[in-house]
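Comment thread on ticket #2218

A.B. wrote:
> Attaching the input chain for the structure job we discussed in standup.
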Amino acid sequence: MTFGDNRLLPALFGEQNSHLSDIEKAFDVTIHGRGNQVMISGKSADTKRARDILSILWNKLQEGDNVDDQTVDAALRFSLADKDSSMTNTPHTNLKDFASVKGQISVRKKNIAPRSPMQAQYIEMMQSKEAVFGIGPAGTGKTYLAVAQAVALFEQEKIERIILSRPAVEAGERLGFLPGDLKEKIDPYLRPLYDALYDTMGAEKAEKRILAKDIEIAPLAFMRGRTLTNAFVILDEAQNTTSMQMKMFLTRLGEGSRMVITGDPSQIDLPKGETSGLMEAVGILQDVDAVGIIHFGSKDIVRSSIVQKIVNAYDARDGKNKS
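C.D. wrote:
> Ran it. Output below, let me know if you need it in another format.
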């Protein structure tokens, strides 16, 4: 392969050729760079995949896009999904989708592209369904992408309000013993939602919108008795809802509103014997057309490679215990 602009080559190759090394490991190929030329050796199918990735990354650089470790990781995920027979029936499993702006969330602060085929499906569902369940382990982007989609629709004036909620199960009956007023008591449980909101909208603008009541961040208990219209409503950590709480939350959906419910079934903090409203709802609503359900796995973890290893280790332990 020959590349025309030497100024872009450091970004393409990565620091100390780290991007080339990642591609080599993913496809069991050898890549040699000399000047503005690259030679790829290995099996035919693998060298083609490596070539395709380098071509797409090069095009992104020429268009002024940033190509960092996360971009390379995303490209590899999309390409490797084509090789996984379990993924062949999913709509977003090839590099063409990664190369295009398809499935991208655009907010004023930045553009957010999916970093895995499952994230691409998740984004597509949030853009087309009235209610979406994002289920899977930590680090798969469930909450962050939901908040980003809410911010995008708010900035486009397609919704009037953003409502972010979590069950404060961890505090339980001890909430009253925590120091501070009600806001100070519940804020620690809602901090992940604040973090995602600040990153996609900006802290100053988000705080102004919160003060203006355009954005509401509240515990799940505050949803009872309300009808939420023209709003984007997110329920995070939904594995810790009871059956009654989940039914209450789902029936708040009003005219012009959308809901996203996220949760990790492996981190249920409910009292022993209590049924998780999240898993019950998924079973009940799986055949409802207006409802989308995405199941993320450990392969979809984009937060850090160590997180993926930790989740895999716990899954292996749980599998042995079940056996």
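A.B. wrote:
> Thanks. Noting for the ticket: The radius of gyration is 22 Å.
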